[in-house]
## 1
Amino acid sequence: MRVIVLDALTYAGRLDNIRDVLGDRVEFVHGDIRDAGLVDRVVARCDAIVHFAAESHNDNSIADPEPFVSTNVLGTFRLLQAARRYDVRFHHISTDEVYGDLALDDPRRFTEDRAYQPSSPYSSSKAASDLLVRAWYRTYGVRATISNCSNNYGPYQHVEKFIPRQITNILTGVRPKLYGDGLNVRDWISTQDHSSAVWDVLTRGRLGETYLIGADGEHDNLTVLRAILRVMGRAEDDFDWVRDRPGHDRRYAIDSSKLRKELGWRPVHTDFDAGLRSTVAWYQAHRDWWMPVKAATEQRYREQGR
Ligand code: TDX
């Protein structure tokens, strides 16, 4: 198998992340998924597209929604058009946020047949791109699947995201920042478990189907932050409460029965405390990786009062 990585290297991308694997089997192309000519040339050389490319951070989408609509909606459209032209298998990576949120005491979790009800500019742009994929499957017969995953954590995650932001705050002598009442629940999954599920759907998923990916990892933000503080040897109240995110989704929770039953997928990295410890260790050992972008990220948060 050969892989072509097409990446725009925005503020969130880094060629260093894949430098070790570049070579005969992995090629890098610098470019934008909205560039129809480039996408056409790259897709002409492919059997399958795994579409991970997106603007993904909710807070950024609230401050400036334009890149989200442009990259996530128009970019997906461009890739679908190329997949159609060259009859290329298409897998779309998406998010549980397309389903909106759940109350804390709701006994239900998200399932594939739940109606879309996205809350933020980010999640609505992902919902729109999912709908394009479904239409291109039904109308043009593009051999497509979609997976909607819960919150990822692990190494190489940008320091704008909740877990790496708090770890790197502590490592730079800044108090962690918790939004609102801290009781919002996220359903955490390791990046490795997400990746193994994507591989299963790409290789064995039924065309035209959506699969929810989740590892039964529901925790509220306050509990996660206290666990990080504990792992890093700090007092559990050594953080700041900051103003809430507008439209902040209360709770996400995934029922991944379909993926487990149909494709036999199982998460492996399900010990969340162990996962947090190894994530903390990774950020401690890789200051060179995150330090150059930390100040600019915190500056963006300061402008939003968070
Ligand atoms: O400093 C913070 N303090 C805080 O309390 C940050 C950055 C976040 N939070 C809260 C907001 C959320 O309730 O933590 C939770 C997680 O926040 P994010 O890391 O921004 O993730 P979220 O908004 O849940 O979205 C993530 O999961 C779904 C990804 O960014 C999306 O791309 C993915 O689709």
## 2
Amino acid sequence: AKKMGRNRFCWYKAEMEQQQLDKFNLMMRLRLAVKQQLFTLAYQPTYDLTTQSITGAEALLRWFDAELGQVPPDVFIPLAEETGLIQELGIFVLQKACAQAKSWQESGFSLNIAVNISAIQFKQGDLPAVVTKVLAETGLAPHALELELTESVLIEDRMLVKQQMEQLSVLGVRFAIDDFGTGYSNLGYLSQFNLNSLKIDRSFVARIAQNDKDLALVDGIIQLARSLGLDTVAEGVEDPQSLKLLLRAGCSCGQGYFWSKAVSVDEFSALL
Ligand code: C2E
Ligand code: CA
Ligand code: CA
Ligand code: CA
């Protein structure tokens, strides 16, 4: 910096450059990790609230990097989307999760597998082909696979997504809206897309035992879903009081630390 007055600016600039460097490093590590398949999947069970039995597993990506340690998906997924690496990573998740579900089924446990899909995975228009191939290779029945989409996916590229969802629905693949309530206020898509369930975001579920308004909101979402013939999954159930309230409100399923966090294959098998 030539002038004193610029010091502040330079300091911010240095910080920004550092951030960009970190991001660049993270991107390089991510690219390497995708190439070397350094990812694993953790599985979080979903429970039927009335029977307290496991109905399915949600596959959640885990990345342990030798240099960076455990990198949370909230950090690397957006980066994988930005770089397009999510395409390859997404196929890996589908393959691995469907193969695992098939293996659990062969051991005598009937359960569904839920896989998170990001908007980018619809961009090339080949998601139905990718899913068909994975189902054929793993031998998993299409109705045992549920794809989780956020509201924003249904809003962007509306026709492209709708078309592919229809093809997948014909196969028997199911769809859930993830983080329901955090996206858009226009609910028109609920009747326009082929959906099977709504996953109520944990930001609403977290405080239902403490806050009457949050309870009213969750209650309303459950009524709405039921009137549309959709299942409801409450995310982030952490305590028995919340479970009681959800049951009373007519919620069908739940997921959360009250039962289990996302765990390894072996730990999940022990829960079955
Ligand atoms: P999500 O799909 O909403 O997944 C639920 C997240 O909440 C998971 O975090 C899970 O570990 C956490 N969670 C579950 N129960 C509780 C609870 O009772 N309390 C609290 N506080 N948290 C709970 P995770 O595994 O860190 O994943 C974060 C996000 O990363 C996911 O949110 C999803 O959007 C994304 N993600 C993870 N795996 C994949 C993937 O394979 N593909 C894509 N596209 N996104 C993924
Ligand atoms: Ca999800
Ligand atoms: Ca969610
Ligand atoms: Ca989320």
